[in-house]
Amino acid sequence: MKDTISAGDSVDSSIFSTVHSRSNTDSLKWDRYLGQDVIPMWVADMDFQVAEPIQKALEERLAHSIYGYTVAPDSLREAVISHLQQEYQWQVQPEWLVFLPGVVTGLALSCRAYCSDNAEIMVNPPIYHHFYDSHENKRQQLVKVPLHKQGHRWTYDIAAMAKACTPSMQMLMMCTPHNPTGTVFQEDELQAVAALCKANNMLMISDEIHCDLVIDRSVQHVPTAKACPDYADRIVTLMSGSKTWNIAGLNTSFAIISDESLRRQFMDAQQSLIPPVPPLALVATEAAYRHGGPWRKSLLDYLAGNFARIEEMLDSIAGVKLEKLEATYLAWIDASELSQHPDIENVQTFFEQHGVGFSSGEQFGQPNYIRMNFACPRDTLDKALARMQLAVDSLGSA
Q: How confident is the model over 135-174, as pLDDT tens digits?
């Protein structure tokens, strides 16, 4: 079984340069601006066709013509386990895997499975907006302890986190690699967080959906549970091939839970609430982990080139500052200076009015930032960057 990147494995990068229309596909990303001349650079899905082995596997499954309830096959578990071993040297047992229709589902299930009434749950802004609404608002309280910057890199403020802990604090929901800052937390950072959680008897829910999208080759993702083996039985890891292989619309992910008791609680919380994973999602996920390595290698090279283009262009656009990025295809852009301009009430709206649709930093807990999805053909990216330049230039001539 060969499911990870090896030297020499690649596909022709021109497949990422081809512009494919997403009209008449009911695309959430593109239909947001239906009938408008706005390039969507917001929600995290890619404008690239899936790897050929995924497409082929789906076509073969479609040919069967019966799409009933389906269980995750042993071959899928084997493909996931092989990938985790070869990519991260993390040995996972088959029974640890619990398949779900999405990572956000896993966040919500964790809150319901593990948190009592009046429990406190810690999150670290800025962070993916679903971390703010996965808990049960009437039963649990969210405690926000912001990340802080060390040099050009966002990381945990352990002292502030420790100060915020109370006897009611039962869980930390974390994200690594981090969305939206792009930080790949290293072993010492993860171990410091685990030590804090251990001292306060807190579970760790680690969203690692972007783990296979590290574009800074000087760093490497380490699964939280692998980095913290003495606390691994108190860690729930959430992963998916959805972002890496652009199959988010098929709805599949998995939790990795080594402790049998925690795993049973998690599975019990699904009853009558969470539907089974659809058959096509299971097929696509197995094909991705088993045969998607060469496509992923070329994707990472292409994304790195796109990010370099953004660095080059934003360096000459006044009022915006590109943050350091280690992983994801989501550029985190500080527009604080631009937001102070008297003609701008909202930075995201300003760029939208000039033909580029970003995610607003406010939804992540960081006003005056914007998040830019650069997983698109370079021609599309260049057009978006040119519109950014024209938008800012228009302020000088107003």
A: 999 999 999 999 999 999 999 999 999 999 999 999 999 9
Coil, strand or helix at 119: strand
pTM: 0.96
Please state the domain extents for the chain.
14-53+293-397, 65-291
Architecture of the domain defined by 65-291: 3-Layer(aba) Sandwich (3.40)
Q: Where in the chain does DSSP place strands (E)?
A: 39-40, 97-100, 119-123, 140-144, 148-150, 153-155, 169-175, 203-207, 235-239, 253-257, 321-322, 330-334, 356-357, 359-360, 369-373
For residues 196 and 114, give the distance between their C-alpha atoms in angstroms, rounded to a whole number: 18
Kindly report whether the peptide bond that precedes residue 229 is cis, defined as omega within 30 degrees of 0.
Answer: no
Beta pairing, strands 169-175 & 203-207: parallel
The CATH number assigned to the domain with range 14-53+293-397 reads: 3.90.1150.10
- DSSP 8-state symbol, 361: G
